[in-house]
Amino acid sequence: MNPGHILIVPKRHEPDFHRLASALYGTLMQLAHRLGKCLAHLYQPPKVGLFVIGFHVPHVHVHVVPLYAMADMTAEAFERAQRTAPAVAVLVDSAAQIRHALAVMEEDDTPASGWHA
Question: Looking at domain 6-113, does it have CATH number 3.30.428.10?
Fold first, then answer.
């Protein structure tokens, strides 16, 4: 996945998103929306994608990913060996940038701030 890829995992176990209680589903999607705005601001990709797949892990989890090309939505780039997993230092730096951007969002969440879609 691309730098900035975020994985949201609810504490409550549920294998399928459509079986989540409505309140938990709503909270999950609100968080994904907020994180998507953060990634759009921080990485400025053409699109931010949202994936709920669940084949490899039988637990609801949502991927929020900066997208630069259609192939970013698939494993195609990995299969062609064009992309490798990022180094731990890159992941730590990305996490710090995202945490900082979220803190700024909370302080300045006004229509004029650029955080609103």
Answer: yes
